[in-house]
Design brief:
single chain, 120 residues, alpha+beta, 4 helices
């Protein structure tokens, strides 16, 4: 539900009960009605990767899978240099790292452990 609609339908501190709806309000999930007890939820949340800048020089992808980033950068650099042999080499490296990451993520999805992706 849209956050504005949720707040209009379920004003904060106005209604409590078993949540029937949720909305994303900035970085938070809000529920309507306001939970009257403790409830468990399960789901998958996809967040946009934070952009890099002069002040934000890293993000979780660079920290957790630097080999993947390096292989992708080298593949692009090789293409720019028009080195077909290097493009093929770095593309194969990139795909291998990506497959490792996906397999690790798939294995951890239902393991009950926090989903952390690390190579090495």
């Amino acid at each position: 539900m849209d956050p504005g609609e949720l707040y209009a339908t379920y004003p904060r501190n106005g209604f409590t009960g078993v949540p029937a709806y949720f909305a994303r309000d900035a970085g938070n999930l809000v529920f309507g009605p306001t939970p009257d007890s403790t409830y468990s939820i399960a789901g998958t949340y996809y967040a946009k990767l934070p952009a890099l800048s002069g002040t934000n020089t890293s993000n979780w992808l660079i920290t957790d899978v630097p080999d993947l980033i390096f292989a992708a950068a080298m593949r692009e650099a090789s293409a720019y240099m028009q080195d077909a042999e290097a493009v093929a080499f770095w593309e194969a490296k990139y795909q291998a790292y990506k497959s490792q990451i996906q397999m690790k993520d798939d294995a951890e999805q239902f393991s009950g452990a926090p989903a952390l992706v690390k190579l090495g």
